[in-house]
Q: What sequence folds into this?
């Protein structure tokens, strides 16, 4: 029988919800970039990385070991960092207005997601 993985349920639930809501925003951003800017390459990149965060966080919930849990969250963290890169690139190339409230909100959300993921990963690594 596999061991039960001890997770902080408050933080865990928070990252589950944050990553899902963020993924929805990324889907809307993808549609906007395709429809308004006829942009197909960068939009696909941010769609993949931005929705992968939540998918990996949710997949981590079924982990059979703490090591597997950390591995899935580490992938989510890497995807979050990549997503931040694509957001910054879209701002710097003029596809997004970096001063717009919704764009600043996306940047804050991805930074928050990254901080939470890093915190969970470090906590779990210190337990093992």
A:
């Amino acid at each position: 029988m596999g061991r039960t993985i001890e997770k902080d349920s408050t933080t865990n639930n928070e990252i589950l919800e944050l990553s899902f809501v963020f993924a929805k925003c990324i889907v809307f951003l993808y549609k906007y970039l395709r429809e308004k800017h006829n942009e197909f390459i960068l939009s696909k990149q941010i769609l993949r990385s931005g929705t992968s965060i939540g998918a990996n966080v949710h997949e981590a919930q079924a982990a059979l070991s703490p090591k597997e849990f950390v591995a899935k969250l580490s992938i989510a963290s890497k995807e979050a960092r990549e997503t931040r890169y694509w957001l910054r690139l879209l701002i710097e190339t003029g596809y997004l207005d970096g001063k717009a409230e919704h764009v600043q909100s996306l940047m804050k959300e991805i930074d928050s997601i990254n901080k939470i993921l890093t915190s969970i990963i470090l906590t779990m690594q210190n337990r093992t």
Helices lie at 9-37, 41-60, 66-92, 101-127.
